[in-house]
Design brief:
Blueprint (H helix, E strand, L loop, with lengths): L24 E3 L1 H6 L10 E14 L5 E11 L4 E3 L1 H9 L9 H16 L4 E5 L7 E2 L6 E2 L23 E14 L6 E13 L3 H9 L8 H16 L3 E8 L5 E8 L9 E2 L3
Parallel strand pairs: 6-12, 7-8
Antiparallel strand pairs: 1-4, 2-3, 2-11, 3-5, 8-9, 9-10, 10-11
């Protein structure tokens, strides 16, 4: 993974004047080759919902303004944005004067779209508008209390199986943990699996999710691995996988991949 020039894992200056050159794109293709996908033929629709909670700039006259934002990157974009570079970029707005929140959103939209190679959707919200949060989305069944006899902490896709009759169900685990591939810092998340197909063995699913505990990969790559493993080993007719990660440095990243084009990331969870 070409991250030699990325700011991740390095001491950084924190510029406070607008600088779009701070954004560091990371090609998605290398990871997709690692999980056996080639030639731009991905078995999913989807995207990455980022929630940015620390956004500020100066209004004309010098008074600061604050907001939070929802940023949606299409999974089909050639690149994702390395998260520390995005934090540095957002910090570069702090001492820059803009005429309105709309102007800031327009500029951020253009910069992110240019960096990742596809149209990005950015929505700024007032800090008085917190949205809604839930512990476990309605209709999802928790697998975290399933009995697992042989827990492993190294990636174990062989744990997955689907020996049961065809069902339609939604499964949830709060036990996803992976690690940053550069710094080793832990990333915590909730996995949401919605599918129609042979019933997935829940203990095996839990064992598989726990096996990510020492895995070093970006959030987006983890979800694409989850999706492709479930698709190939459990043979569902339809499948949606979403991970809602907790925030780090004022950002939370929530990728989802689905066989269904209309699926979305779902509601914000209480840990975010």
């Amino acid at each position: 993974m070409a991250l030699d020039n990325a700011p991740l894992g390095k001491a950084s200056d924190y510029p406070d004047h607008y600088d779009p050159a701070l954004l560091f794109p990371v090609a998605r293709e290398e990871n997709r080759r690692r999980i056996g996908l080639e030639d731009g033929r991905w078995p999913w629709f989807g995207g990455d919902l980022w929630q940015a909670w620390e956004i500020s700039w100066l209004r004309p006259g010098g008074i600061p303004e604050v907001a939070w934002a929802e940023i949606r990157f299409p999974a089909a974009s050639p690149s994702l944005i390395e998260s520390k570079s995005f934090k540095l970029y957002l910090n570069s707005l702090n001492q820059t004067v803009f005429s309105s929140a709309g102007q800031v959103a327009e500029i951020v939209t253009g910069d992110l779209s240019s960096a990742c190679g596809a149209a990005v959707n950015v929505r700024f919200l007032s800090v008085d508008d917190s949205g809604t949060a839930t512990g476990r989305p309605s209709g999802y069944e928790l697998v975290d209390n399933e009995v697992v006899d042989d827990v492993v902490y190294d990636y174990a896709p062989e744990s997955l199986s689907a020996p049961g009759p065809v069902v339609t169900e939604k499964l949830c685990s709060h036990l996803l943990k992976s690690n940053c591939p550069v710094t080793g810092q832990p990333d915590w998340g909730t996995v949401l699996v919605s599918y129609t197909g042979p019933a997935i063995d829940r203990a095996g699913l839990l064992r598989y999710i726990v096996s990510f505990r020492q895995k070093q990969d970006f959030h987006e790559h983890c979800v694409e691995t989850l999706f492709t493993d479930l698709l190939s080993r459990c043979k569902p007719q339809s499948l949606t996988v979403c991970a809602r990660y907790t925030r780090r440095g004022g950002l939370d990243i929530n990728p989802w991949r689905s066989t269904e084009p209309e699926e979305q990331a779902g509601p914000r969870l209480i840990r975010q």
